[in-house]
């Protein structure tokens, strides 16, 4: 059974940090590109970051560049999103996704996590 389980969300103060994890089972992540998306309340889903499976190239939305870091541990079949210097506008449900190549388009991804809530508030 294919599963992509997220964890690590929560409530954090502005300027704080969180690390989101996404553990895969039923398939191996090392042959997939990974994307992180987020959806704020009342808004559409937007791409945050993605990483290639082949060359390890990483990509970031301008809104998170310099603050977020995407990484993968193929031995643990897990991907991460390290989020630093968090801002209230980062508040959203965050989703991980796996697909054949890095993309900002949701339709390009085959597997999705269930989402984890990140709330940045004082």
Outline the structure in words.
- By secondary structure, this protein is mainly beta.
- Helices cover 0% and strands 49% of the residues.
- The protein has no helices and 11 strands.
- Strands 2, 4, 5, 6, 9, 10 and 11 form a 7-stranded mixed sheet that branches.
- The N and C termini lie far apart (40 Å).
Largest sheet: 7 strands, mixed
Q: Helix amount, in percent?
A: under 10%
Q: Overall 3D geometry?
A: globular
Order of helices and strands: EEEEEEEEEEE
Distance between the termini: 40 Å
Mean pLDDT: 95
The percent range for strand residues is over 45%
The total strand number stands at: 11
Query: Which regions have little confidence, pLDDT < 50, spanning 5+ residues?
Result: none
Gyration radius, rounded: 13 Å
| Helix/strand structural class | mainly beta
What is the count of helical runs?
Answer: 0
């Amino acid at each position: 059974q294919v599963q992509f389980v997220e964890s690590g969300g929560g409530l954090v103060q502005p300027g704080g940090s969180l690390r989101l994890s996404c553990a895969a089972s039923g398939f191996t992540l090392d042959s997939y590109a990974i994307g992180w998306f987020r959806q704020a309340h009342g808004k559409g889903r937007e791409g945050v970051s993605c990483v290639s499976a082949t060359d390890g190239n990483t990509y970031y939305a301008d809104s998170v560049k310099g603050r977020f870091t995407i990484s993968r541990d193929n031995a643990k079949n897990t991907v991460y999103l390290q989020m630093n210097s968090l801002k209230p506008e980062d508040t959203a449900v965050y989703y991980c996704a796996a697909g054949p190549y890095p993309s900002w388009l949701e339709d390009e991804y085959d597997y999705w996590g269930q989402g984890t809530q990140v709330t940045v508030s004082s």
